[in-house]
Design a protein that fits this description.
Elements: H1 2-5, H2 11-40, H3 48-77, H4 79-90, H5 92-123, H6 125-152
Helix pairs in contact: 2-3, 3-4, 5-6
Length: about 150
């Protein structure tokens, strides 16, 4: 899905898709905020930190969606800015930096999670299993992306 949203072959179409993704994310974030105030706030079902995390996540998604919407809308309405952004996104050096950053972040996250298992197994088996699940999802996502990209590229 992200490949289709951030496809730079037709930059204007990509911006329209980004704007639609922004509307979708905004709907998710606002739904989370609404659920917090209607279902969770004032309820003693969840502890305070979980309620704060729930509200913070919903507000964070909403803010990120608003920024994505504002940027895509700005670029769609300002041709000169759109031209500069298109050149910047299609720059090979910029693409290489972004790809290497993702690779480093992925490797660091994977090994940090694997290392944290040594501590978590001694402290909490549930937390260790949660991190092990994250590692498994990461590995499966990498495998799926590798298979998809090997056929596409």
């Amino acid at each position: 899905m992200l490949m289709c949203i951030f496809d730079s072959s037709d930059f204007e179409r990509s911006l329209r898709r980004r704007r639609l993704a922004g509307f979708g994310l905004l709907a998710v974030g606002l739904t989370g905020v609404l659920c917090y105030f209607l279902l969770i706030d004032g309820s003693d079902v969840l502890p305070d930190f979980a309620r704060g995390f729930y509200l913070g996540g919903a507000i964070g998604i909403s803010i990120g969606a608003a920024v994505l919407l504002a940027r895509a809308t700005y670029l769609l309405t300002h041709p000169e800015a759109r031209k500069r952004a298109k050149i910047r996104e299609q720059d090979e050096r910029e693409k290489a930096i972004i790809n290497q950053s993702y690779q480093f972040a992925g490797m660091f996250t994977f090994f940090a999670a694997a290392g944290s298992l040594f501590v978590l197994v001694a402290v909490s088996m549930e937390a260790a299993l949660a991190v092990l699940g994250v590692i498994a999802v990461f590995a499966l996502a990498w495998l799926a992306a590798n298979l998809f990209l090997s056929k596409k590229l």
